[in-house]
Amino acid sequence: MLSNKTSDTTITASSSNNTSVNPAIDTATLLIKCKDQAGIVQAVSEFIHRYGGNIITLDQYSTAHEGGQYFMRLEFALSGLSDIIDNFEASFGHTVAKRHNMTWRLHDNAIQTKVGILVSKFDHALLDLLWRHQRGLLDCEITSVVSNHEDLRQAVENFGIPFHYVPVTKDNKAEAEEQIHELMAGNDLLVLARYMQILSSDFVKRWPMQIINIHHSFLPAFVGADPYRQAYDKGVKLIGATAHYVTAELDQGPIIEQDVHRVTHRQGVIELRAIGRDIERNVLARAVNWHVQNRVIVTGNKTVVFN
Amino acid sequence: MLSNKTSDTTITASSSNNTSVNPAIDTATLLIKCKDQAGIVQAVSEFIHRYGGNIITLDQYSTAHEGGQYFMRLEFALSGLSDIIDNFEASFGHTVAKRHNMTWRLHDNAIQTKVGILVSKFDHALLDLLWRHQRGLLDCEITSVVSNHEDLRQAVENFGIPFHYVPVTKDNKAEAEEQIHELMAGNDLLVLARYMQILSSDFVKRWPMQIINIHHSFLPAFVGADPYRQAYDKGVKLIGATAHYVTAELDQGPIIEQDVHRVTHRQGVIELRAIGRDIERNVLARAVNWHVQNRVIVTGNKTVVFN
Amino acid sequence: MLSNKTSDTTITASSSNNTSVNPAIDTATLLIKCKDQAGIVQAVSEFIHRYGGNIITLDQYSTAHEGGQYFMRLEFALSGLSDIIDNFEASFGHTVAKRHNMTWRLHDNAIQTKVGILVSKFDHALLDLLWRHQRGLLDCEITSVVSNHEDLRQAVENFGIPFHYVPVTKDNKAEAEEQIHELMAGNDLLVLARYMQILSSDFVKRWPMQIINIHHSFLPAFVGADPYRQAYDKGVKLIGATAHYVTAELDQGPIIEQDVHRVTHRQGVIELRAIGRDIERNVLARAVNWHVQNRVIVTGNKTVVFN
Amino acid sequence: MLSNKTSDTTITASSSNNTSVNPAIDTATLLIKCKDQAGIVQAVSEFIHRYGGNIITLDQYSTAHEGGQYFMRLEFALSGLSDIIDNFEASFGHTVAKRHNMTWRLHDNAIQTKVGILVSKFDHALLDLLWRHQRGLLDCEITSVVSNHEDLRQAVENFGIPFHYVPVTKDNKAEAEEQIHELMAGNDLLVLARYMQILSSDFVKRWPMQIINIHHSFLPAFVGADPYRQAYDKGVKLIGATAHYVTAELDQGPIIEQDVHRVTHRQGVIELRAIGRDIERNVLARAVNWHVQNRVIVTGNKTVVFN
């Protein structure tokens, strides 16, 4: 996220990031948000060119009205990047970024994003992330899994990933969240892979736009508990899932990705949940990958996704 | 609908109803709703067999719990059907239907369903219905179009279909609805093809489960006005449309069909509306066709669709 | 399959088979194929009714032309089924089935289908099946996995399923197939979860319509080797996967299920393969589930799928 | 197309082209193809900036291997564009384009693309294009329709578009094509909206990458005649349609867009054709719109589509 101060996210050459880059060459990703104005592409590309960099991909978007916002995602290759990135970063900030009043972030793609996962008892979203990670399909390092139940310890440890049990009760919620916060320190992103505890707004504020949740409905339909039963009761013909950033307001954070699947009157609540699990795991995996590939920019309560 | 007393809906041999029937042979459709119990298929099929009928398609569904409901849709071929249908109907009512306490309806497929359309200024849903009808893709007779604007008169009359202008104001709403009711008398179904007036509950009660509306959102998300703007403001990644029966409660009637289309941050409200028009016209056409083919049974606030 | 003489396939009450059956009550599935003719539903339902059975689901389909074929799938509940199934089966065969010249099969749903899996080095399709099985989402018993590589032994044994290594070379192909045949004896279905050896027509003949393969393209496009490269070279905008029964003719057996995913010019061959893996595992799981739930009937080189 | 020398394609402000441009401000679209190399974005954006232009959208893509190709599509706003476009064009050609050895084309978006349509008897693809055009959803001028049958004259003339009847027989094919070529002179694009005559390679050569055809199958499956029957005979579970540029080799030109729809064993050939018509008209409309918005670049036998 643009609000993230560290520049530690990576897009590895083995990833599905559609670039033409030679894996041996250093690359970086630059995210920019500013007021729409003439000359941005020119200024940025000129700056990179002066350092000898080559633009690999460039995506931009601006909102349609007067006083609109401008967003850019740019990957460039630059031989010997790690030696000069501090200089590059400082210089860019003092010149181009200052001149155009940009909010911006630069990422050395050689450094992997660190991701921690929170889960309760449902395993489908968690295991799908671990699997994809093991196969090299997730561009990040999964550091650990925290759960308020012991059930999934074995499954997680089979992947060689540390598992921490942090029980949560009515009485210990604040202490439990403090413990989770400490266990997760050092991560760049927390993923709620069907974590069934509501995080306090204090906790959420410490991880601004750094927590992704998978909600098991096509939001904004069916907020709250047991959405598949709500969907069944309503008789909808499609059910869905939504990956979104967690904000203090429950189920209302910026949506990153959604998908749906067709159902009929024949599917009961149990079948809806089974179908839903498949949607959930796919939607969450896509959202996490886009985040760690620095493809998501939050603006207001919405996302710009350069995918 | 089962609550419809007339038996005038048709499934023509030229339709897409997937039957193996010889168009020269008479067919009928039987819809049944009753308490789930043993022996229904046996009783019904035995009755039809005794008349020399041959079952072409049989769909059934029962709800999963004790005291569940049972639903059946059955098409059969019976040579010389029109000569004996009154006898068949009376006899079925006094024997099988009575014994199993059925709500039921029999349709001679040689008689076409009569459909009237209400529209305002948007033409896409209306014209798609007229087109499909002209090409033989809608199994019904479109009798007339009523609009509260003159704009679409020419487009409708080009298809050889009568167009009636019934202006609606704050002051004449009751009179206008009375006029519409009279103009539409004799129809079996009213289709609101983006009719932008809210029908009174008095009007709706006179056409129970006989009015289909196309709502331009994926209900229950975004009820009410301007759903594409709501979808834009929310930043959803899929937009949709919903065809449903009209009940007294706005946007809350039983859902017949829904579909969605993927969008991104790049689409503004205008683009969302354009994409939405394509979804709307397809969803409405499917819902209307299923209704006139007697594929839809309402139960509570949900639908069973045998498609 | 109808050609399968054993009646050992199951649809457990915990499955997603959409039935209203009480899990404590015995159920069976009846598959029928015969010439289209009047009175079939009547005869079958009357027979079941006489035994005190209650029809839970009934699907039928007949081909559209003269001399057409008729297909039926019927589930019924019958208390104490296992005590009288032999009598039921014999009696049905001598009366209804004989009279209508039916090819048919009866399955006591209390007995689980036995499934063996063949795999090479790709793990995605295999592991997805093992996962779904572990979660109770596949209505069968997975008995063992055979591979021509050792790579996936640990992954399989983690699920508590026996793993057999049967290397295949140019010289030992016949012996290897004999060994596989013996290891797999007792199974009702073999699943090729990306098994990269072509089975001999001798082997295939011993498992008629009892081998399901996942082909990594939208057949009949891109038969043969490396379909994702073929798709890339052709520049198609959708890629897909196909689950089909294995016949002596490579990639030409009856198709059970297919699905596709949208791609663009930006995806290289590596990305196409990654996207394809997701399609493959979902398509294969659906096809296997439909088979073990007795939802698939082969007719000619096509399938009727009652799902 | 890049091979098209004229600069007469338009992206109107009322279109779905996702830009933030003020409709009162002049815009142009620049398409570039060259060898991948450092500094392209910098050179192009610097050139536009020097003229006072503001980049609205910029899409680029480069192939993944050494010696790769580079593609760019760029829209920019420039007040008073029409007065200086000749100077701009000449200057760009002599400097940036020459230095980077670019194939390129500049389009003044105030000038509309001229499109002629060829059709036979099927009306669905044609009428959908005329409708969308009438509603302002196609960014082009439709100049005329040519058909080898009289059937659709009235339907076309209802839209106020000239209709020309050019019968084609075995004996007059060359003359007919000559007549079509003359009638279509002045157009930038020909659309075959189910035109059932095979155009000679001589004709095709005169309209290089300027003819779009809708093929009624998911190519490369089911080339040749009656693809829906082929699909039915094969028993595929999805049917589709493909919009592609016409080349001398039948059904083998670069694919612009494809889509599919799920079918089952229940759909006969007639139903497949009906479903197919809906896919065809949507796929063709998308392809035509992308072409006239200059979103398609042909490379080899594939397309890069910036949509």
Protein model, in words:
4 copies of one chain form a homotetramer. With 307 residues, chain A is of the alpha/beta class. Chain A folds into 2 domains: 82 residues, ACT domain (Alpha-Beta Plaits, 2-Layer Sandwich); 192 residues, 3-Layer(aba) Sandwich (Rossmann fold). Chain A is built from 8 helices and 13 strands. In chain A, strands 7-6-5-8-9-10-11 form a 7-stranded mixed β-sheet, with helices on both faces. In chain A, strand 5, helix 3 and strand 6 form a beta-alpha-beta unit. In chain A, helix 3 runs parallel beside helix 8 and helix 7 crosses helix 8. Chain A starts with 26 loop residues before the first strand and ends with a strand. The N terminus of chain A is likely disordered. Chains A and D meet through helix 1 and strand 2 of A and helix 1 and strand 2 of D. Chains A, B, C, D: Keywords: Hydrolase, One-carbon metabolism, Purine biosynthesis. Chains A, B, C, D: InterPro entries: ACT-like_dom_sf, ACT_dom, Formyl-FH4-Hydrolase_C, Formyl_transf_N, Formyl_transf_N_sf, PurU, PurU_ACT. Chains A, B, C, D: Pathway: Purine metabolism; IMP biosynthesis via de novo pathway; formate from 10-formyl-5,6,7,8-tetrahydrofolate: step 1/1. Chains A, B, C, D: It holds the Pfam family Formyl_trans_N. Chains A, B, C, D: Belongs to the PurU family.
Helix and strand pattern of chain A? EHEEHEEHEHEHEHEHEEHEE
How many domain regions of chain A?
Answer: 2
How much β-strand is present in the residues of chain A?
25-35%
What is the 3D shape of chain A?
Answer: globular
User: What name does CATH use for the topology of the largest domain in chain A?
Assistant: Rossmann fold
Mean pLDDT of chain A: 89
